[in-house]
Design a protein that fits this description.
16 helices; 45% helix; 19 strands; 465 residues; 7-stranded parallel beta sheet; alpha/beta
Length: 465
């Protein structure tokens, strides 16, 4: 039997790790590698197969992430339902009229409220709009505070700096105590090709020491930061992720890690990154297969699009990207809702549209389960040939639960649709958004915990400023 694609990528990655190495631009990371006998050349670390395998052997295949409200606890890995988190890192908001503006902390708070009230999105994000109205040195504190207070689902920590990572860990301890159990997930992005910036390497160490899961993503831009051929991107990505896993497991063997699968081409006509095309979906799918190859939980792409509005392009690109992630059994789907403009913008209307899309896909993927006892031929025989089931008691019994609601989608005949005051999908989303935010109720939290969190944030802001 010949070698699989995953075998070939793994072997090529081992070659790169042993002979080219991966750079870590954090002194403490380099020192840790050296102290464990890794070959180094200044900031470049070299890895042998035994060191990689030892790290993989101690990385868990699944783990539970606790939420402030235990009904929202999530188990990641092991073919469980995926975590669905909103868009991440966008500096702009695109409004329903097409106007683009800088994101604010009010926007961030609104996204927290939408996540909390969502029946589909089960994981609160971080940087759901980069708040331009707050000082960048301290705004991670405001985002973390709002993530915890406004939503009782699991949340994402801040890897922006070493201190931001420490703040995330400390704020989690205030709420959850000193237990090392996972309560948040932090997103770590490697620099392509084959590098980890100081803050990313430091965040790996800080979150891993605290037992908090990290997503390690090592993709790049095909034709720019990585070679233009997709398999070469996969090798660079895989080598970077394996190197990051090694650092995590040196800090704390058994620390949870999620394998991040991303990658996008460079448009050779415009020189712009794009991720709504089939090439991105192809490399994400293969990256997710690598995570399965190692038995690791995985992160896939979300409702990704290069469109700047909630239009046909946004719809088909988002649907295809999400479907790839679901079909490939991604355990954590980042950017599952709200993202536009190739990661550069968030949209409230698209958040609701993508939420409905996720609901639709989840329902589609459910197998049609039944057994002999559930087959009731008496109903069919009772109505007989040429009858109707509209007024049958069995229809009344199941009519409210048999089909999922898709409130933004049109199911009306043309004349009825045309007669509506609000008929377009986008306008329906705008109206639904207003109702949803008006009806939001903040989840309960012990007043002493809330006061301690706020004191911590005030104290840290004074120290920083």
């Amino acid at each position: 039997m010949g070698k699989t694609k995953q075998d070939l990528i793994h072997e090529a990655s081992l070659d790169i790790l042993a002979n080219t190495g991966v750079a870590f631009y954090a002194k403490e990371a380099v020192q840790l590698f050296r102290s464990h006998g890794f070959k180094t050349d200044q900031n470049i670390i070299f890895f042998n197969e035994t060191q990689i395998q030892t790290a993989l052997d101690s990385t868990p295949s699944q783990f539970l992430v606790r939420a402030r409200d235990s009904k929202y606890d999530l188990r990641l890995g092991g073919q469980n339902a995926p975590a669905l988190a909103p868009g991440y890192g966008a500096p702009f908001i695109i409004e329903s009229n097409g106007f683009r503006r800088k994101a604010t902390i009010d926007d961030y708070q609104s996204f927290c409220k939408l996540v909390h009230t969502s029946k589909v999105i089960n994981f609160n994000g971080f940087m759901m709009g980069d708040p331009s109205d707050l000082p960048p040195k301290t705004y991670h504190l405001d985002m973390l505070l709002n993530s915890i207070l406004l939503c009782s689902k699991p949340f994402m920590g801040s890897p922006l700096t070493a201190q931001a990572a420490k703040d995330a860990v400390q704020m989690a301890k205030i709420v959850f105590g000193d237990s090392p159990a996972p309560v948040m997930v932090a997103n770590i992005n490697a620099l392509a090709p084959l590098q980890f910036a100081p803050e990313m390497a430091q965040s790996i160490m800080i979150f891993s020491k605290a037992g908090q899961p990290i997503i390690i993503t090592g993709g790049g831009i095909m034709g720019s930061t990585v070679p233009i051929v997709p398999v070469d991107l996969l090798i660079i990505q895989n080598a970077s992720v394996l190197a990051g896993i090694c650092l995590s497991q040196l800090v704390n063997p058994g620390a949870p890690v999620i394998y991040g699968a991303v990658g996008s081409p460079l448009d050779m006509q415009t020189g712009a990154l794009y991720h709504g095309g089939p090439e991105s979906n192809m490399v994400i799918k293969e990256g997710l297969l690598m995570a399965n190859f190692y038995g690791l939980p995985s992160r896939g792409g979300g409702a990704l699009t290069d469109a700047h509005s909630l239009d046909y392009q946004a719809g088909y690109q988002s649907a295809l990207s999400l479907k790839i992630a679901f079909d490939s059994h991604a355990d954590f789907i980042l950017h599952a809702c709200g993202i536009l403009s190739t990661y550069m913008a968030m949209s409230f209307e698209k958040f609701l549209a993508d939420e409905e899309l996720c609901h639709h896909i989840l329902k589609t993927l459910q197998p049609l389960e039944f057994n002999k006892d559930q087959i009731d031929l008496s109903i069919i025989k009772e109505v007989g040939v040429g009858g109707q089931f509209l007024t049958h008691p069995s229809t009344f019994k199941h009519c409210r639960t048999q089909f999922i609601p898709l409130p933004l989608a049109n199911r009306l005949p043309f004349d009825a649709w045309q007669a509506q005051a609000v008929s377009s999908y986008r306008d329906k989303a705008t109206k639904s958004l207003s109702i949803r935010l008006d009806q939001y109720q903040r989840p309960d939290i012990d007043s002493s915990l809330e006061n301690e969190l706020k004191r911590y944030v005030r104290s840290r802001k004074k120290e920083i400023c």
